[in-house]
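job 3f2a | input accepted
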Amino acid sequence: MTVVEISQYGGPEVLKPATAPVPEPGPGQILIRVAYAGVNRPDALQRAGNYAPPADASPLPGLEASGHVAAIGEGVTRWAVGDAVTALLPGGGYAEYAVTDAAHALPVPEGMSMDRAAALCETAFTVWTNVFMRGGLQAGERFLVHGGSSGIGTMAIQLATLHGARVFATAGSAEKCEACLGLGAERALNYRDVDFVEAMKAEGGADLILDMVGGSYIPRNLDALANDGRLVQIAFLQGSTVELNMTQVMTRRLTITGSTLRPQSSVAKAAIARALEDKVWPHLVSGRIGPVMDSEFALTDASKAHARMEGSLHIGKVVLKVS
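job 3f2a | predicted structure (323 res):
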């Protein structure tokens, strides 16, 4: 099969087409003939040598894909060959075939195209885990999401709005801010012109902040929280090492938490998948929410897809057309 591999650690140019054997599904797994693969920040981190895959995962990048079941492993009862699925992958999505745990696959929402379906799992799993399971977002709360025009941000805005939260977002251009407003954000803050700390303080502070920037944003996020507020950290585009005065964490009863998805157990990911199918998938089917699509590249042009994503030019998701 055709794959895209990381020839060495470095920039987008190190992503090279290659050939590899088609993997075989083990017990409890399915083999997917990939139609489209999602492109995500963790793929770029892996390419740069900063995010090693689990020992039992494919070394190829790619954490989500859509396609059709090509084979099933021992013990798999839900899926049959030919079923249309979208799936969270442990790796290996930049390929014509990929293997994943059968419990980490979900049906393609009725009426949804395969390119849009490929843009679901990494974002939906991440947002549901961090905004609702860890962050505990409730209706009426003030929710601030940084990077509101990213794949994660666009899904977070939609789901938080759907659940009755007051949503605020930061983004880096007028166009991106308009996109956030169009998805349901009450206010979109251009971080080049507006201090999000002062903006949120004027609203009474954020009850929950979802941050993927890190670095200098971390102490500013604490300042922007309301009393009893929660900060959920999911990435560190500006770095993970900062100096903090923790006094206000105690005096204002703040919570700092976070998670990464890939290292979690198969059981934990399966539980998230079940929650998504119950709580989120009906809204995808109805069209109330959906992935925001930015651009599509051929599998063999994965380097161009990475360059677009890392150039922060995109609004929503970037995908690779595989077959």
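job 3f2a | Residues 2-120+265-321 form a domain with the Quinone Oxidoreductase; Chain A, domain 1 fold (CATH 3.90.180.10).
job 3f2a | closed
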